[in-house]
Amino acid sequence: MDKIRRTHQLSIVLFVLLLIFILCIPPVCSEYYADINISVDGSGFVSIEGRTNHPNLLVDNSELYTYKSQSFWLLNITKNEVFSDYIYSLTLPQGSTINYIRSSGFRGIEEKSGSLVITGSGGNESLSIVVQYQLNERSLDFNVLIVLGVLIFVLIVFLVFFVIQSKKKKLVGPVKKSDYVISFRGLTERQKQIMNLLIEVKRPLTQIEIEKELGIPKSAVSRNVHSLELKGLVEIEKVGMSNFIRLKKP
Description:
There is one protein chain. The chain is of the alpha+beta class. The protein has 5 helices and 14 strands. It folds into 2 domains: about 30-140, Immunoglobulin-like (Sandwich); about 170-245, Winged helix-like DNA-binding domain superfamily/Winged helix DNA-binding domain (Arc Repressor Mutant, subunit A), CATH 1.10.10.10.
C-alpha cells in the first residue's frame, strides 16, 4: 500500500509540474504582431506608432534606432523575436537618398510629398529594417534660406519704416537755427515746408521765390506766410513792389 501511495503522490507531483511547465510556455514562446508607421526626421529622431503586442517597439522621438557617421545615417530597427504577422511603412526625411537597404518583408520604395517611403510585410520571422541614407544638404538648406529670406524682408521693412519716420521727424522739428530753436509744433504741412525752405537758404525770400521753390499757389503762400507772421515765426519786409519773408529772430 505504501508503494502504491508513493507512486500516486509522485504522479500528482509530476502532473502539477507538467501543468506549470505548459502554463509557462506561452509567454516564453509567444509570437508577436505589428502594424506600424515609422517616421524619421532630419535630426535622426524616430517615431514608431501603430498596433503591436511587442513591449519595446513603439517609441516617440527616440534616437535609439539611428546612428550618424559623417554625412551617412544608419537606421536599424531589429527585433529578433518571431512576428507571426507584421506590416510597416517607413518614411525617411525629405531630401533623403538611400545608399543601402536590408529589410525583412521588403515590398518597395515610393515617393510621397518629397519623402521616400519604404513598405514591407511578412510573417513567421523576425522584424529587421536596416537602411543607410544621406540627406540632400540643399534640401536642408532650403528651409534655412526661407527663414533667412523672411528675416531679411522684415529687416528691410523695418529700415524703410525707420527712414520714413526719420524724415517725418525732420519735418516736424524742432529745428535748430544758429543759436536758437524753432518749434514746428502746431504748423500745417505747407507752413513747415516754408519754414524749412527759409532755414535752408539762410536768406529772405520773396513770395514769388517761395511759390516757385515749393510749387504752392500764390494765394496759399500769402495765407500761410501771414499765419506764420501771426505766430511770430517770420517777418515780412516790403522792399519796393516785393515782400521779403525772413525768419524772425527771438
